[in-house]
Amino acid sequence: MLPQIITTGWPGYASWCTGAGNDLSCGLLMRGRPVYAWAGSAATTLATAYWVISTGRPLFMIFTYMLGHYFTLASWHGVAHLSTRATTQIAATQRETARLQAQQRAHEEADRIMTSRMASVRQRVTPLLTQIADGKAPTPKLRSQAYLLEAELRDEIRAPFFTGTSIVTSAQDARRRGTEVILLDDSGDTTTIDDRARTNAVNYVTNFLDLTQSNRVVIRLNPPRRPTLLTIVTDDTRYRLDRQGELIAESVGGQVN
Predict the structure, then answer these.
(1) Measuring CA to CA, which residue among 247, 245, 248, 249 is closest to residue 199?
(2) Nearest-5° angle of CA 86, CA 37, CA 4?
(3) Residue 77, domain extent
(4) Residue 207: per-residue pLDDT
(5) Within a domain: 89
């Protein structure tokens, strides 16, 4: 590269020096530092002006000598600006695409869950509804099956926290014994309940339902702002579990609040 530098005649080494400085300014533009790039070009212009004046050349030579460098730097500035804008637009498009894809996956997951639940409900109610549609007399056994199925479906809607746990089976057994069991989930977001508290609460409620002889039992998962995790209210007694799922209070005179 060095042999290509013109050392004889005007401007000699000066053209290489200003060109190298201009290349550095272009590099600053590509790094997103336009102020420093043009400041470097201004410094080169001042050095050129001093050189032109000190060598006795015409002042207009400052402009003609630097014109090519200005044009090159301005071109690079435009390219850098367009590249930055394109990069910003591409990044915004990618974010929007990711958001739409996540939204689509969420909708697909919701549809899948809804389809699965509807299929589960259909599978459970079809045998019972078929018997009714066939004109079968509403025997006590058929009424009991309908009552238990209705309660099970109602629990899945009003108390999703208990769905899939041993509480479901224990609640059904208690209902068969004649106990009215009402499950309520007012927690809103069960992700705030850790696994240990969940296990303790499920085990306590399961054992309670297996042993209860009350006419009516209301089991409520409390909102997150409440100091207690869960409340059990029977005909004459109220039980409260703390946020760790442990029994902390038992009082006479049950009341849901």
Answers:
(1) 245
(2) 105
(3) 17-54+66-98
(4) 94
(5) yes
